[in-house]
Every structure is written in structure tokens, then in C-alpha cells.
Design goal:
Length: about 290
């Protein structure tokens, strides 16, 4: 039988030391006999240079990809942060716009209050409306607990809105002058000639309501201001209603009719003033009797 050959085993320290000595020897020889190693250096360089170039290319590509990924990540984070800031600014802008709008409404009410200083008033907010886009019948957030009663006049913008037709503890129903059931005894502010302002829901879509019972002898022209009359049984005197437009002669020839452009915008009511003083119609009642 053949004897197994013993494996030659070299201690790692000896191998490491031998390699170190070999490297040092090659370094010394390359310095001492540099001219003899030129061919070897050139050959090694020829082999290694393309490899080094490839390694550099791969390294640069990886570096660029890492930079691109990092930049993209930063851009996404920045975009998310900016989007959040835009959302916050948008919400703040909406709040500010709402506050400015509410402030403007209060400013208008204050100016209206100064326009009729002799009448006591209570401010109220419109909370709902009946029917279409026009505030011909609507509800406010004040009632008997706030001193509101039936037949109290309601104003907004620059003049008359309507009259309280129903009231509860914490709400009131208002019938506007544009409603079909509304009829206001009015007069021309300058001449004192009387007339009747009648609500008309069909006409208001065209921007006006009707004025009837104008005396045939009355001098009427477009732009004349109409206010509530002193002979009205429910409406206080002197509240502005609107301006005259399109005057025409009745077929009977006895009276004139016209259209009236309301001084109040009846499709954008938010806040109103309720005049808590009722019209004293006792004298009018005695005259009627």
C-alpha cells in the first residue's frame, strides 16, 4: 500500500513575514534597478489602466446615483414641507378672508346705525332662508329674549329689508319687501308724493320690483329715491327703499307705474339690524275710523 503523503503546513505568521519581505525586496529592486523594471511596469500599467478606468467609471456612476438619490430625497422632503406650509397659509388666508368679510359686514351695520340714529336697534345674523336664492323670507338668530317682536322693521345695507312676521324666543322670521305678499306704503323723498311698493318675485330676477299708485300729476323721473311713508301703518317713516326706474303711464290715465331698484342686495344678506321701536299707528287708526 502506498503511504499517504503528509500535507505541508506553513504557519500563517511565516507566510505573512515572507510576503512582507518579498514586497520590501521588490520595492528596493524597483528603485535600484528601475531601468530593468520599466518593461514590467509598462506591461502591468497596460493591464491595470483599463481596469482602473472601468473601476473609476463604475465608482463615478455609483457616486452620481447616490447623489441623485440623496438630492431627490431632499427635494421630496422639501416639497412635502412646502406643501404643508402652503396648506397652512391657505387655511390662514381663508380664516383671514372670512374675518375681513365679517368685519366689513359689521362696518356696514355701524354706518347704517349712524344713518338712522333716532331708532333703537338690535343686530342679528341671518341663519336660514326659504325657497330660492333670494332672501324673500328668512330667519334671524334673535327673538323675544332679545327684545324682538312682530312688525318690527328690519334694515341692512343702506335701507329697508322687510318686517318681522313671526317670532320665537331665540329666532324671528322676516318677510322681505321683495316677497309677493309684501306691500309697503312709500313716498318720493323730495316731493313727498305717495306710492305703493309691491313685492314681485318674478321682477326681482330682473333686478327690480314694482311701484304703483303714483299720482298722474306727480313729477317722476328715473333716479328718484323712494322711502317709507308717514302714512304707513307698520313701517317707520324715512327708511330708504330704492330708486325709480322705467316710469310709465297706466292705461287708465289716472296713475303712473314704475320699477324700483332696491337699495339692498337681497341675494347676499348675512347680518341685519332690527329696529325695536314699533310704528305708532294710533293716530292713523283714529283717522281711518
Amino acid at each position: 500500500m502506498k503511504k499517504r503523503r503528509k500535507k505541508t503546513w506553513i504557519h500563517p505568521k511565516i507566510l505573512y513575514l515572507s510576503l512582507v519581505i518579498l514586497c520590501v525586496l521588490l520595492v528596493v529592486l524597483s528603485f535600484k534597478f528601475s531601468s530593468h523594471f520599466t518593461v514590467v511596469k509598462t506591461s502591468v500599467g497596460t493591464v491595470i489602466s483599463p481596469m482602473q478606468k472601468g473601476i473609476n467609471t463604475v465608482g463615478n456612476t455609483i457616486t452620481d446615483k447616490v447623489k441623485l438619490f440623496t438630492s431627490k430625497k431632499k427635494l421630496l422632503e422639501e416639497n412635502a414641507r412646502l406643501k404643508e406650509e402652503v396648506d397652512q397659509l391657505g387655511a390662514a388666508n381663508k380664516i383671514l378672508t372670512g374675518e375681513n368679510s365679517e368685519l366689513e359686514n359689521y362696518r356696514k351695520l355701524y354706518q347704517l346705525d349712524k344713518k338712522y340714529p333716532d331708532y333703537p336697534k338690535v343686530a342679528a345674523k341671518v341663519i336660514s332662508r326659504d325657497g330660492n336664492n333670494w332672501f324673500h323670507v328668512f330667519y334671524i338668530d334673535k327673538g323675544t329674549e332679545d327684545g324682538i317682536g312682530v312688525d318690527m322693521n328690519v334694515i341692512a345695507g343702506n335701507g329697508l329689508v322687510g318686517i318681522v312676521s313671526e317670532v320665537g324666543k331665540h329666532y324671528a322670521k322676516v318677510r322681505a319687501i321683495i316677497d309677493d305678499k309684501s306691500s309697503v306704503s312709500a313716498m318720493f323723498e323730495q316731493s313727498g308724493e305717495t306710492c305703493i311698493v309691491r313685492g314681485n318675485m318674478e321682477s326681482i330676477y330682473k333686478g327690480y320690483i314694482d311701484v304703483t299708485m303714483i299720482s298722474n300729476s306727480a313729477s317722476v323721473k328715473e333716479g328718484d329715491e323712494i322711502v317709507t311713508s308717514h302714512i304707513s301703518d307698520k313701517f317707520l317713516q324715512g327708511l330708504s327703499i330704492g330708486e325709480i326706474k322705467d316710469v310709465s303711464q297706466d292705461p287708465s290715465g289716472l296713475t303712473q307705474t314704475a320699477h324700483l331698484i332696491p337699495i339692498v342686495n337681497f341675494d347676499q344678506l348675512e347680518n341685519v339690524l332690527v329696529i325695536t321701536q314699533l310704528k305708532d299707528s294710533s293716530e292713523l287708526g283714529e283717522i281711518t275710523k
